[in-house]
Amino acid sequence: xxxxxxxxxxVGAGLGGCFLALLLRRRxxxxxxxxxxPSIPSAxxxxxKPPGLRVLARHGLAELVERHGLRRDLIRYYHDGEPIRECRxxxxxxxxxxxxxLVELIYACCAMEGVEFCFDAAIERVExxxxxxxxxxxxxxxxxxxxxxxxxxxxxxxxxxALDIDQVAMPYDRLxxxxxxxxxxxxxxxxxxxxxxxxGWLAYLYPLDRDQARVFVGLPPEQDDAVFGGGGAxxxxxxxxxxxxxxxAFGSLPAAAWHPIRVSSLRVGAYHKGNAALLGSAAFAxxxxxxxxxxxxxxxxxxxxxxxxxxGGDQALLDKLLQARYEPRRQAHRQLIxxxxxxxxxxxxxxxxxxxxxxxxxxxxxxxxxxxTPALQPI
Length: 379
Ligand SMILES: Cc1cc2nc3c(=O)[nH]c(=O)nc-3n(C[C@H](O)[C@H](O)[C@H](O)COP(=O)(O)OP(=O)(O)OC[C@H]3O[C@@H](n4cnc5c(N)ncnc54)[C@H](O)[C@@H]3O)c2cc1C
Description:
The chain is an alpha+beta fold. The protein is 33% helix and 28% strand. It folds into two domains: 3-71 and 93-171 and 263-345, FAD/NAD(P)-binding domain, CATH 3.50.50; 176-261, D-Amino Acid Oxidase, subunit A, domain 2 (D-Amino Acid Oxidase, Chain A, domain 2), CATH 3.30.9.10. The N and C termini lie far apart (65 Å). The model has no long low-confidence stretch (mean pLDDT 94). Flavin-adenine dinucleotide binds next to helix 1 and helix 9.
């Protein structure tokens, strides 16, 4: 089969891969995105927090993603049924938009601007010469040579493996998560509510659009079979013990399709090697309770686009710039991962959770937060 070449090969057409492809294409780079699935991925986040919205705004995409999206500015937290605190997001709050819709919009911009996508094309083989990736062989046998390779291929990244970069993945095994999409009820339309119980359960209910709501349930893994595996325990009865102001949603829960979600944190030893770099979930993963994974990924893609364009194919300069501008992101990610760990391990304990909660990270991420960052507000 023929060997083609490009300036930048991006493996993975999720949010990170598509956004980076768009930024690079706009700077005149020839970009090829390789995606193992038949289309862009559907599983992912729903919340885009203010830092991510600001990144998109810098590239003229804010209006596009906000059209048909839902803006919210308040989350109310409960413990064992009692409201304990609220977190208010200033300046228009955050955006709720299903992951696939968000990525699809960016993908459409990429397609219009001439990014080439190869779907159903997993990476079969990665050939290296020293630290440098020389050739990618795809599952259809075609081969691609690129000056720069970006692994935006998720937590199990084939590019990270090919680069022999160390990784430590820690499953959050005390909290099994399930998610369902159900009809919207009045209480969910009114407010995002996140409930915790001292028995190690959580339930998060929020609107997706004008008709549908998303419900996340987290529970100790040993109870999953009894509740979701036909073991006879009633989900609604168990939720009644700690979900108080969203009971109008209960009617739709028993018949809903509850999908399990595996959640792990991921730390890796380096973000680049030779002519290759890692982006998004290939580089770091934190607990979804932080709600910041996409915002950090978008910001990281901005840095990568700057660095790759500035290097202009010069390998030594690329390495220097990645070291100076991209590797320091590991510190911000580490802080976010630690924060996610703190939330995931304390949520059952009201006092410990409130002590661990950081409104600055929740609202602003690692952007410089104003001195007057609102703490969790008493109700
Ligand atoms: C349950 C859950 C909820 C979350 N909620 C939020 C939230 O509310 N807000 C937020 O900001 N963040 C959230 N996150 C994090 C957010 O989803 C990630 O930060 C973001 O999706 C990262 O995008 P990505 O492009 O790196 O990865 P992905 O979207 O995972 O894309 C990776 C792509 O690479 C492809 N791929 C993998 N291997 C190969 C291969 N060998 N060859 C070719 N293609 C390959 C995959 O098919 C996939 O399309 C959540 C995460 C989870 C798990």
